## 1
Amino acid sequence: MLGFFRRIIYSRFGIVITMGVLGVIALAFALGDITGLQSAGASGGTVAKVGGESVSETELTRRVQDELRGAQQRSPTADMSQLVAAGGVESVLDRMLNGLALEAFGEDQGMVVSRALIGSELRNIPALQGPTGKFDQAIYEQVLARNRLTDAQVQSDIARETMVQFLLRPQLGASQVPQSLALPYASLLLERRAGQIAMIPASAMPAGSAPTDAEIQTWYQRNVARYSLPERRVARYAIVTPETVKARATPTEADIAAAYNGDKARWGARETRTVSLVTVLDQKAAASLASKVRGGTSVSDAARAAGLEARRLEGQDKKALTQASSAAVADAVFGAQSGGVIGPVRGSIGFVVAKVENVAQVAGKSLAEARPTIVEELTKKKTADSLAAIRDALEDSIADNANFSELVADQKLTAVATPALTATGIDPEKPNVQPDPALLPILSAAFQSEEGDDPQVVQTATDGSFAVVALDRIVRAAPRPLASVRDQVAQDFAADRARRAARAAATKALAAINKGAAIDKALADAGVRGGKVERLVAARSQVNADPRGPNPVLALMFSMKGGTAKMLESPAGNGWLIVKVEQITPGDAAKIPQVLTATRQDLGRVVGGEYAQQFTEAVKKAMKASRNPDAVARVKASLVGQGGSNQ
């Protein structure tokens, strides 16, 4: 889990452009959170300062809690202690200081973010737009209330983020790397090293006597987390699917007849036309284009000559053509014969020139012939309407403080309870049972709830199915009793004893090797039986060749001085490795242009972020950014004391 937090906290560009959290608004901004704060008016001690601005303990705490809520959207089991351990507090504070420093620097340089620009950014946030596609003040106020924000805070954050973008966008856009800079890096990739690698397996160590009760007890207490069950949750839920509403979604004969009679134009005999058309903004240009078409030029060729693109609409009746163009265009097209050219006709945008390519007569359908299509369409609509009606009723009842049992009873649903499961659907007590993917949305809701929270309605499938979910209880993480895991503890103790013995032997052999002893002799003198020595030859480029991550053995080999040896635990954890470098052959990328070119391209993809980070660090130094380590420590202690809560 710590690895998860490190991945979300640290990006390729470091702390300069990491996503932050401003609730719904931050997601809508889709901007890197260099700012992520509103320091004005915050209470509590000061954790950092930039010029005349400061960051309070209270504000840093709130921002870290926001960070955790965002992380829990991706990993429901994430908790505060893990975030703090992974450096989350420092990362959030870095971003806050970055924003304050860059904003202050920009203002010192005479740069200003106008209120008009702030308003424009706010109005363009999709999450704040209503049904008309325009900014909706009511939605905005709801978002502010839900996220405990003020309009002044949001506008200040937008202004700060905009200023940051003004300053960093030029650096982030940099991608040119000179050959002289890329050459040493490219040559490093071609460097080759040769040596030997020795494996000292733990299994080769003497087994020793069986562990005593005292040793087992001590080992268990020191490693109790290894034998603990993770936090699990029990959720009560009731699923609503299209099958649930099948009875009420089946259309009656009256419904089918009404649908048929209500759309006679669709089912009756009709005429369709295939038409090629092009829209021209200028009326005179449209008239000139129409003249060419009447002279025999195809619509597509005439449009292409004018730098435009024609459309071809196949088998359109008048209603469909009206929707695709305009009523005036449809009237003109259906008033012309096959091969006729119309236009210019004013369309919804500009002027339309069109040619009727084909006229066809489509026979009508009787009620019996149309029935399968009508039944399918009515069933789909009535199913969607019925599901929506139940969902609306559930959500209204939840808003009126109805509990789970009342919701289920009111809608005549069947309630089910999950076993005590982790967020990934695993029952640690039954490790051989595969998790049910259908439960994941339900468990996700349960792990985002606390005991006593209102039920939630969550989507469970793309067919419109959903579930009403309530957290029944939380089974806290707890160690298994020693008696139930005694055999495993004894095995682990013995394995650790062998591993430590292997390490002691490897340490002794390593010292001898670095004093000039041959590897085989050093292993034998150290009492290693079953050790394996192999020749190792590799290029530096192979260190990161595996998409799963760097090869630790090669990474060590290419970090050592020639003629020296070092040791590390084997990646499989089953012993220790001794690596000795015997020969280093430098690379010369000047002789391999394709490697040099590829390296320049690779560096070009990251150099902009490096420039931005270095610029930001220089700005912070110039603006005299400072921190209060004691205050940061208090924030971390307070957050860890929350017991993993994100509240």
Note: The two ends are 20 Å apart (CA to CA).
## 2
Amino acid sequence: MTGRFDTKLLPEGLRATGYRADGAILAIDAEVTDAKVICPGCGQRSSRPHGRCVRHLKDFPAHGRAVQVRLSVQRFRCVEANCATKAFSEQVPDCLACRYGRRTGRFQDLAAYLGRAMGGRPAQALGRRLRFSLSKDTFLRRAASRVRTMGCEPRVVGINDWAWRKGQRYGTLICDLERRAVIDLLPDREPATVAAWLRQHPKIEVVARDRNGGYRQAISEALPDATQVADRWHLLQNASDAFLAAVRRAMPTIGRTACSAALDPGILTAAERLQFEGFQRRQQTNVMIQRMGSEGVPIKRIVRNTGLSRGLVRRVLRGEREDVFRLRQSSLTPWFPLLEKHWLEGCRNGAEPWRRLRSNGFQGSLRVVGEWATRQRRAEAAIPHGSSKCPPSRRIFRMMASGRHHLSKTDSIFVTQVEHALPQLAQDRRLLDAFTSMVRNCEEDWLADWLDQAKASGLAAFSRGLSADLDAVAAALREPWSNGQTEGQINRLKMLKRQMYGAAGINLLLARLQHSA
């Protein structure tokens, strides 16, 4: 089927002169409306026609059919006798079709967009459904062919490393912090490579970085007048690591003193002392009720003598006073002595005591015994002193760094014991709190005093590192810039790299990073 029509089916600059539908292909005849007839050799305009040629261009599919544009291009002879170019074709604008290209400009742009947004194989699968007969390699080539150029020179940048392969090979990402966009990717993190890139951009005034010594050296060599800003998140992370190291060094002392010593009420706060005294009173009441019950005093008389409720006296006599949950069934009550015997023998999971009770005639379910075992474990954990097992160093670090007002009663009392037994570790914790507050509130004036106090503490090595990079640390407390935007771009880079199974080159990664924002 053939015909002629005037409807604009093609991009601006092309005029359709006819079409032919042949199965799954729609062929459209077209010509250029405003082409330049200038010789590429000498630059002279020509008016001597020399025949025509046809360029076959692929365009957007239409109505379920692949579209092929048959572009009629006129040829001309050069009017300059001494020109080496004897004949040439009229120039088609690059927005319509690039030189020697076999696709329209808008089709090339769509292929590049799909390649950047989806990658090779997903774009190929989608293109097959949309009648795009393009391979995955074509999508990736188009995606990597267009890298954005900066409209103006950056003034504030962030630099950080990223892993080609973790622990083996690293690259460098450079981000424009003002425009929140990736500028470039470098193939490694060597100071010479970073310094060479910085020399090409002399208008940079501020560089945000982590505490990598190589980046500090590169910036100092290439841009000595630029302000270096240490990343605040890394400062807090390094301070936490230094305090964790101090806790680990003190673990033998913590195990010998804090975990085995009896609790001294004098080291508690007022609120903790009230809780502990209440715990002691409940323990004394429990002992009194259990002694009266062992002497055969009836429950009614115990209630009358003590003034306690009947339910509370029953729970104490059953051993439920410190439990978290109530018993749902009473079938286990006659078996409490045997259960406690098995518990003291080391049966702590619920299943083994249940099997032993079954062998003695118990008819209840495993769930009843399991709930009892859970209550027993929680009751033992609620006892604030006399713990025989020391928590790991990382948990002690978290408890001490969190502050006692954020902890449970048990953890708060344990932290109190540790700080009472190790005054130096308590001082290190106070220094950590002071540094965290200083960074979060950007209090640059307190930095010098903090460094003086930390010289003789467990954070001495960390304070020496801060002193060696003092200008960048002070700028972090003074400037509003940080490397958080760069870290976010690196997370996007990791996601894109894993989507392509780590097989993408640096140009493709940069193109996908810049265009997927």
Note: The chain has a mean pLDDT of 81.
